[in-house]
């Protein structure tokens, strides 16, 4: 088993739902003295993802019915409450103990309700038409090393990566205006592992024998802005922007 495969299995072992939380009864994994951070933009995003899963028809019929009839009503109720508490703002938060009246909402927090397989793609993930030798030459020749590449992934890999991220309920880290998913919390997948392996094989002069220290994905609320200009602590950092062009209202 690969390290990333082990992370995925550990996530499933710790966060899978053996039973679905039911209305009016806090499930055993939710302690009454626990403290939950409630952020309106995260609750709104979660609602949109649950609606998306129903629309896509990717859930088993019984789970699809549960999400539509049991989970979504509590999420929508929590969003209404949250907006009242924070005076209709989306970028602030509050803390609360779990409430029995919203047992389903609290029972589903940070749980693997649905995890897309995120399988590897046949034929490779990286677009073979990208000139990686020239890219490495250009990158290494610069004093301030930065390189931008369009169409880096093959379409099959790009669509698979988007589906994995849009469908998987792994977005548990909430920040200002966005949510995050990390390797140890569900982001690890066969496809992410494939991308890591291909990057090492195809960019040997840039990556060399450096270890993959971390990988994550962020999803943004477009109305709240994004992360400001910054640099992460890394010898080599690779970022992928995979939002469809048609979603860019300024394009």
Spatial order of the strands in the main sheet?
Answer: 3-4-5
CA distance, first residue to last residue = 43 Å
What spatial form do the alpha-carbon principal axes imply?
globular
The largest sheet is: 3 strands, antiparallel
Report the mean per-residue pLDDT as an integer: 93
Q: Report the C-alpha radius of gyration, rounded.
A: 20 Å
Order of helices and strands: HEHHEHHHEEHHE
Q: Approximately how much helix is present in the residues?
A: 25-40%
Strand content: 5-15%
Class by alpha and beta content: mainly alpha
Strands, total number: 5
Tally of helical runs:
8
Contiguous runs where pLDDT drops below 50 for at least 5 residues = none
Which features characterize this protein?
globular, 5 strands, mainly alpha, 8 helices, single chain, three-stranded antiparallel beta sheet, about 250 residues, two-stranded antiparallel ribbon
Tell me what the structure shows:
The protein is mainly alpha-helical. 40% of the residues lie in helices and 8% in strands. The chain contains 8 helices and 5 strands. A hairpin with a 2-residue loop joins strand 3 (173-175) and strand 4 (178-182). Helix 2 (40-56) runs antiparallel to helix 3 (61-85). The longest helix is centred in the N-terminal third of the chain and has 25 residues, at 61-85. The radius of gyration is 20 Å and the shape is globular. The mean pLDDT is 93.
